[in-house]
Amino acid sequence: MNKPLVLVVEDDTPVRNLITTTLKTHEYRYLSAQNGASAVMEALSHNPDIVLLDLGLPDMDGVEIIRKIRSWSNMPIIVISARTEDSDKIVALDAGADDYLTKPFRPTILLMKVKALLRRVEMDRGKTAAEDELHYVDIRYSATENAVFCGSTIVALTQTELRLLSYMMKQPEKAYSREELLSAVWGFDSEVETRVTDETLRRIRKKLLQAGSTVSVSTIWGFGYKLKGAECT
Ligand code: CA
Question: Which of 33, 83, 175, 180 ranks highest by number of CB atoms within 10 Å?
């Protein structure tokens, strides 16, 4: 297998050097960008395996870059930012980031996150034929197309949302605890807290509705979530 290609977007030279040195000593290939415009250009022209993205850039906000990349690609994106508020994390995840790491960070944690996310993407790709398509009421998950559809309408989900919804679609009648979803979708090592699961589910509900689906996610107070189809209400 080829060494994964990482795009590092960071305008702060010492931080950028720390990241690229860490990557280099762990057998990753990398490209770097110091502003938003060149980040988008590098992402477009090199199609990296993963993007590590700072939010405070000189020419545009990192969240804007996430939105731009998401308009054509679902390449994994990890935000690395000094913004520590939950609301900042939610805005970035909402725009389509897959994970979030706050500064200052330990290089070992960064490596763990990169590895975990690449492994998840790899697992998603390597799904068996039985798991290739999942159906629930009026929605269909296709692993090959890496998307959920309602009829012919694609539900505009981020990678994280897609992983969460398809995970729940495997056993649609089951009630899932927050902890199970958290570890299944973000991994045990994640910094992401249960509140983010709530936010992600809220966005999934909204997007299903926008796509015209009758499927929703009901909250089971004090426990977690369950999928809910029109005929079950
Ligand atoms: Ca910065």
Answer: 33
Q: How many CB atoms lie within 10 A of CB 189?
A: 12
> How far, in Å, is the centroid of ligand 1 from the Cα of 78?
14
Q: Which two tokens stand for residue 149?
A: 């559809």
Cα 79 to middle of ligand 1, angstroms: 11
161-186 pLDDT tens trace: 888 999 999 999 899 998 888 877 77
Task: Determine the straight-line distance between the first and last CA of the chain, rounded to whole angstroms.
Answer: 48
pTM: 0.69
Check if the beta carbon of residue 64 is closer than 8 Å to that of residue 91: no
CA of 53 to the centre of ligand 1 (A): 9
pLDDT in tens, 65-104: 999 998 888 899 999 999 988 888 888 988 889 889 999 9
CA of 153 to the centre of ligand 1 (A): 37
